[in-house]
Amino acid sequence: MFPMKKINRKGKPMDKIFSYIDSHGSEMISDLRRLVRIPSVMGEASENAPFGEMPARALGEMLEMCSEAGLHVRNIDNYVGTADFYPANKTPELGILCHLDVVPEGSGWSVPPFDLTEKNGRLYGRGAIDDKGPAAAVLFAVKALKAVGIKPAKNFRLIFGTNEENGSADLAYYRKKEKLPEMLFTPDGSYPVINAEKGMLRVSYRLAVCPEIISLSGGKAVNAVPEYAEAVLDIPNADISEYTSKFNGVTITAEYSDGTTKITTKGKGAHASTPENGTNAVTALISVVSEICGNTALNALSGMFPYGKTDGAAAGIKCSDEISGGLTTVLSVLSCSDGILEAKQDVRFPVTKTSGEILAALAEKAAASGIEMNADMISEPHYVPEDSPLIKKLLEVYELVTEKKGYCVAIGGGTYVHETENGVAFGAEFPGEENNMHGADESVSRESLIKNAKIFAAAICSLCEVK
After folding, report:
1. Residues 26, 37: Cα–Cα separation, whole Å
2. 298 to each of 170, 235, 284, 383, how far by Cα in Å?
3. What is the pLDDT of residues 453-466, one digit of tens each?
4. What is the DSSP letter of 6?
5. What are the respective helix, strand and coil percentages of the chain, to the nearest 5?
6. Which residue in 101, 131, 346, 380 is the catalytic one?
7. How far apart, in whole angstroms, are the C-alpha atoms of residue 319 and residue 321?
8. In the annotation, is 434 catalytic?
9. Is 15 a catalytic site residue?
10. Which among 84, 130, 131, 164 is annotated as catalytic?
11. pTM beyond 0.90
């Protein structure tokens, strides 16, 4: 085990590395600008571009920068690129996994989304924090090691993917070609260390609704608390007065036209991994409509997913553990056609449970009410024990650089290492930061990006045994 005292920030060699990072930070910003200017949103697949032209172009740009830095690069069919510190015939024992694809720009930006704008100490642009900024910080950390003459005893590999935002087919492809290093981390999460990621399920239900329901819809994304839902009923002037104040956090209104009633519910959106931050317009709507229409099957669905409850108790799946906390679930999307309603559910379950256990309980509950159920997506939990040597060293590095207490974190979402055996998320967001990830004006502070580069450099020195 590498003696951590050798990388103490007040001693050599880290003082030289940190000084270089502080004095050459503009080079990292220039690298990040080169990446942000490529709108690497997933596009139509074509020859030599499995996820579209722009992700492939971003990968080529990053590998060119790595080659300029003296790393040994390889492009694996434009799915993934690698950059080794030493020639590839020396097996890498550490892998640092980043992704270069980004989500679409969306609307509401105050600056150009696909350029890097610096103002008031912050760097704005799509990918600034997810994950082009962290990728640039990783590369800059390596540049700093080379600049001061650091020669690790172990080889390490930077791994750059292009499909994290849309299923990580890139990483699956890589794993068919190459074995991942035994030590693996990704700056695709937050500090100090994310070592537990809940399992994820997406489930759909089909049930017949009564003829009085002309339409019923709500939600857009399975993995989000729905903020809007509406129903049109073949009922004139349906009275909703008793429901308007029943659902705290949801506004309910009705419009009457040509003998029909249109009921609208408006709540607050949130990510499905943190449903407590939202108010569910869908569950409020089906509760109202099922009572007005007296529809048995819809009543049963509403009973499984009562408004304001996200622990799964009513659906028979409530559970919890000390590692990752309690199960959460959201009924998130509704659509209705020809008298058949389809509803979609998101489930995040603890690391000590299996998908089979959760699905069996859901199937039993649905069958008892005559509701058809299907599992659309299954992802088992990901967990690396806190006492693993990798985590211990990463936490030591975090404490040395930040002078703050290191600890492990469990999340309901998934990071880029979710489907790996031994990987953890290490950065790049610091506790309490707000960077508008996936939103308008996504950004990262220059200070945080510099600090990330220092942390990554220190982690490489520790894990790869700098002499």
Report:
1. 17
2. 40, 17, 12, 37
3. 999 999 999 999 88
4. G
5. 30, 30, 40
6. 101
7. 7
8. no
9. no
10. 164
11. no
